[in-house]
UniProtKB/TrEMBL annotation:
<keyword id="KW-0539">Nucleus</keyword>
<feature type="compositionally biased region" description="Polar residues">
    <location>
        <begin position="11"/>
        <end position="20"/>
    </location>
</feature>
<feature type="domain" description="TF-B3">
    <location>
        <begin position="261"/>
        <end position="355"/>
    </location>
</feature>
<keyword id="KW-0804">Transcription</keyword>
<feature type="compositionally biased region" description="Low complexity">
    <location>
        <begin position="31"/>
        <end position="43"/>
    </location>
</feature>
<dbReference type="Pfam" id="PF02362">
    <property type="entry name" value="B3"/>
</dbReference>
<dbReference type="InterPro" id="IPR003340">
    <property type="entry name" value="B3_DNA-bd"/>
</dbReference>
<keyword id="KW-0805">Transcription regulation</keyword>
<dbReference type="InterPro" id="IPR015300">
    <property type="entry name" value="DNA-bd_pseudobarrel_sf"/>
</dbReference>
<keyword id="KW-0238">DNA-binding</keyword>
<feature type="region of interest" description="Disordered">
    <location>
        <begin position="1"/>
        <end position="43"/>
    </location>
</feature>
<dbReference type="GO" id="GO:0003677">
    <property type="term" value="F:DNA binding"/>
</dbReference>
<feature type="domain" description="TF-B3">
    <location>
        <begin position="50"/>
        <end position="144"/>
    </location>
</feature>
<dbReference type="GO" id="GO:0005634">
    <property type="term" value="C:nucleus"/>
</dbReference>
<dbReference type="InterPro" id="IPR044837">
    <property type="entry name" value="REM16-like"/>
</dbReference>
<protein>
    <submittedName>
        <fullName>B3 domain-containing protein</fullName>
    </submittedName>
</protein>
Amino acid sequence: MAKRGREKNPSESSGGSNKSARGRRRSRKFVSSSPVASPPSAQMEISSSTSFFKIFFPDASTQKLRIPPAFCQQIDKKAINDMAYLRGPSGHKWQVELMQSKNDLYFESGWRDFVFDHSIQVGEILVFRYEGQNSFSVQVFDHSACEKESAFSAQPSKSSKGESCNGPSVLQEQPNMALVVVKKEEPDDFTYSRSLMPTKTPEQPSYKRWLSHNTDDRSWTEVTKPKRVPTIVSQRRPVTQEEIANTLEKAKSFASENPFIIIVMRNSYVYCSFFLSLRADFVRENLPKSNAKLTLWDPTGRSWPIIYVCYNGRHGALSGGWGKASVANNLEIHDVVVFELVKKNHLKMHIYRVVEEITPFKRGCDVEREH
């Protein structure tokens, strides 16, 4: 599927009105993956005086994000230790705190919500444009060097202090219903979540409680310690959009009394980063509220120990161990996997392949990833 990007008019005013995601998807933009590439400001025609970029690494960028010192002079000093707004590609805004520590400035409180709501993966690039009045627009580039498609449909999670620029949120949950079906606007990502218990409106945490919850940097870095893992190069034949759609329809017919979630595989899930993000509603209702070890059962009955990473009890992902399970089961992009919670901390995989015939992978270059 081609990725659609956003092209800004250089004459556009810094505080321009918010636009819909569709209005901004006009042309593809590329960021060179070369380690000696010229600064993104030159490649993307962005003024160096109002923009900066960051490469995302979980150890350094999950809890807070450091703003480059050379850029700090562009920010009004009155804005320091105050709230700022990040406008994502979807047009929604995320509220973060702009904090000073010694001589450095950071995005802190609220930043982690932005990271998880956009499913930011290791190695992805974020480009920030300062629009004045404590506001920044953010572009997200994934491993293809194009703007990340799913970022155009990202929405603030319920507990994040975000603002919608495009009308009401698509996500709607009805209380006291046994089955909750959530459909994201992007066509290739569906989540079906069946709860064993009636759903309840989650308690909104207080500001102090939110700040203090799960902020142990050491516990995070223990599960994200870099480890060298080979990338995977697919040898599968090209697939058609019809085949992709048919595979998803088959997966949607899955039924179980147990909670389950349907996820369409992406590049970063099965070829390189091996960091699989889970939808917040499924995490909240069915999975541990802190980092934990899960057991994943594949269709052949093999079990795989998986490191489950959870932030604030609302966002979760499969990290260490997921890569081995994915490669061993020859998962490819656009394949669909149903994760069924068969018992506490035990997930069973049901795999729906776009191409039934399995073609062995080719090993690529080593990359750093979470342990």
